[in-house]
Amino acid sequence: MTKEKYFGSAFWVEFPGEPVSVLARKDFSAENVVNARLSVIGLGFFEGYINGRLISEDRFLPLNTDFHKRELKRKNGFWEEETAHRIYVTEYDVTSFINEGKNSLCFMLGNGWYSDTHQEKFGDKKLIFSLVLEDVNKNITSIVSDGDVYYKEGFIKEYDLTEGEKQDFSDYSDSWLYTETDISSWAKVRLCDFPETKYMLSDCPADRVTETLYPAIIKVTDDYKVYDIGKNCSGNLVLLLPARKGKSVKITGSEEKLPDNDIDPEKIMDQHAEFICGDTEREVSQKFTWHASRFFRVPSDIKVIRFDVINTAVSVNSEFNSDDKVLKWLYDAFINTQLSNMHSGIPSDCPHLERRGYTGDGQLAADAVMTTIDARKFYDKWIEDISDCQDRKSGHVQYTAPYTHSGGGPGGWGGAIVHVPFMYYKHYGDPSFMVKLYPQMKEYFRFLDEHSRGNLVYYDVPDEWCLGDWCTPIKIRIPAPFVNTYFYIKHIDEILMCREVLKLSRDEEKGYKEKRNILVSAIKRRYFDPKTGDFAKNIQGANAFAVDIGIGTKKTFKNLCAVYDKKHLYYNTGIFGTDILTRVLFRNGRGDLAVRLLSSEGKYSFGNIMNQGATSLWEYWTGRRSHSHPMFGAVVTYLFSYILGITQENDSFGYEKLIIAPADLDITGSFSGKITVPQGEVFVEIIYSDTSARFKLIIPQEGIFRYKNNKIKLISGTNEIIISRDGMYAKN
Length: 732
Hints:
- The protein has 732 residues and is α+β, with helices and mostly antiparallel strands.
- Helix content is 25%, strand content 30%.
- The protein has 16 helices and 41 strands.
- The strands form nine sheets. Strands 13, 14, 18, 19, 20, 21, 22, 23, 24 and 25 form a ten-stranded mixed β-sheet that branches. Strands 1, 3, 8, 10, 11, 16 and 17 form a seven-stranded mixed β-sheet that branches.
């Protein structure tokens, strides 16, 4: 859509002098208004007010996209790739805000994604709006951004998207929001051009305050207090700023604390905020950024009111419970970590240091997110970002969507253009993104072919990383070409599973199968040792990659299991290997070993992270760097698909053919949980004793139950089944 579709005759305006934050206002008169609708884009972030009232509780808008073309640099020259661009329009019904007579339409703007130097900035702050008023006689009046918008500097004086704000209230008053305040001394905005882009209406849920926490004091000194908000999450501390003009109040957040209950300086991640007091007492918090911390250091004489948890306003539509404390913790920690990494329409890698929509992390966690969170509209937006970030000339898919200069690889990262639409189809039963992006998927495959040697995907774009796996507990040793070629094969398989909706011709289908065989042969030739049965010496879960694409011998899987059965009961794998290893164990009859790994408390394990007091998942098994990365939580999907057994037939999409097929686990204990599928809520409770397995299933449709050698037809509603542990006796 074009600008005129949403904004009519409005102009883009900018603010000469470029203050860090801006207060902008336009006054207008209205009579007998029965309908009022505001369309607005405020770059970088904005808040809107009419007559002193905040228009919406939405935060961090507009959504983060590749807004328009910009000048970028690579190490050895300028960016030459050709990507697509979008910008999202926010619309609000503001009828109830309009007064008879004089009105003031006001905006507060900060740098946000668009103008911050955290990444290669797009440009300086800009604003466009159109307020359309309809009166009782159906007359239409438009109040638009033009040369009659006035502005002045706001109270945010310093800003860094990932670090924090400095707010100065020493000369600030809220009176700018009201019609009776004279703004004749304010400066006028400047009309400006805006680069070509695609305008779209925002349908993805915005960020909001989703939870309120009340911090506990854990340390007191003469100078400061340390507060524990209860969990490591994203949001902002709310303080009561005293009426002491000029007094500086500085706060610091950290993910962890030291043994003496002070904040851990290694986990501050440069997160600070400063507030300068004015003449009046006021509640304050950061306006256009957030912190991702659990512990805060605050001056002793400053009152802490609360902590506002802020993330994309999606709902968690799943539950998981178990008397295995690690498995229960894993689910809870993943949900907390994932929500903390959902901001402005992207799934980020971490909510502090980078805040980037890595295609690797995002595609890896997509299955688990779609299983546990109502995220369909969120992915409607992010899949468009993935589409945008593909180079239209080479087929290369960037490592982040929207694009920010980052590292990754051609397989586990670029493959998001196939895998995320495929998961969307698998979970929601909607093939539209698979169909829409299929031409781009073929271009991505062309890119892989052109960056292969001996039919192995060996390299990526010049002077950039070409990773295979990532975040292994020790140095990455699994070969990148092996991993990247594995992903090529997996994505061919996903295309073939969608052959009907993609309307593949016989020749296309034959071509994909032949290509798959060529890639498999290349992997075997380069990495398979027929004497041992190992691929790439079975390093860091390498055999799991092979088994997952159906290659190798019986020794391959046997040797894989032996590493964890005999050598060590903890993960030695990276972000992709951990997910693949866990899935392969469940799928090939070693669910017992998969559960032992998931619930292990060894040195590289979820249990070890839990035992450190964590409430979120870490970036590295070793604990270094970020303590809020959701990528290892990809395995959470198997709590539902294998432990609870909530799954579907291989040729089913959108759970049309529902199956409840719990893994055969030689354990005692209980598991229960639910997920929401397109047909409704699916609940499973399992109690394993020494002699029997009891199942309570509540399903919204007919389905099939499979356990050991039993196959039982399920009715919609409640089903209760008892099966002896040897599988010989079943009662329904």
